[in-house]
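U., I forgot to send this yesterday:
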Amino acid sequence: MAEDMLGIRAPANLPSLVKAAFEKARAAGDLTCYPTQVAVLKPGRSGIAFQLRFSPALASKPKPNPPPPGAEKKKPFNPFENPLPSMTVAQLPPNHVLVLNKFAIVPEHFILATRAVKPQTHVLEADDIAAAYACIRAYHDDGKDRSQELFAFFNSGPHSGASQPHRHIQLLPVAQMRAGLDTADHGADWSVVADVMGSSSNEKDAVVDMPFAVLTDRITAGAPAKQLHAAYVHLYKDAVRLLHPEEINEEAVAGAGEARISYNLAMTRTTMALCPRVAEGATIRSKSGEEEVGPVALNGTVLAGTALVKNEAEWDALREDPDKLLGVFEQNRRGFFY
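Result:
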């Protein structure tokens, strides 16, 4: 078991548990894994490689029907409350459960959710960070393949790409994120951007030279859970002050309760990165600039260096002019975009 100082343990065979559960649930029709095409773009002068994935089938993803006029308002469906046994990977006592993502773009995408219903918009607690990092360690430490790594991300707030109000952290096997890259131009250049940013930053909490504002901290091997949580809270408070410079005192920004801003958090085995958000994305135009071809929305996977589009016009426009992706980043010059 991969264990942290709070006693939270992830199964040592977590990669094989996730793989087996994913394949069984997909065969039973309990989840959908959408096929994608992939291109690797190098927008602007940063030299950073970004994955662009295109999934036309995702545009037809089922949506809940609106209630008829006058009908009693029903409680929204919560996929993390009492999940189907086929969608459950493992329990992480005392407070978390691992479940599969019902609508996956990356195979074996799974989710760390709180057992009790807690708000996605609140600052994460120490056990949330500890449970996520225990999963990351379990992937790296798995005896069958020492090269396995896990990318964890958290979307919080209306501008972050968050879609479920029940607190959850999403987990993506990096090996699965590489699918299709062997045939893509610049595919060999792609790696998880959070790790690139972390390794290029010599100073704690540095704003790395990227087309969007990101605060990073290196994770020391064997760091206790409380230290990891303190690092996260520090990054969060600095991000609040980045958007609200009037809040300059440490005590002026609460490290618990309702979050003051929208943001994305990413964690890998070696890096923690936090990206303040003031917009979910932007509308892009055709190569001629005469036609709007669709909105591009970004969530925490941007800290892995990935973006997703659902229609062919967006796919073509971004591949023809990768700098349009910078236009999405630069839609607003405050906070997330600068």
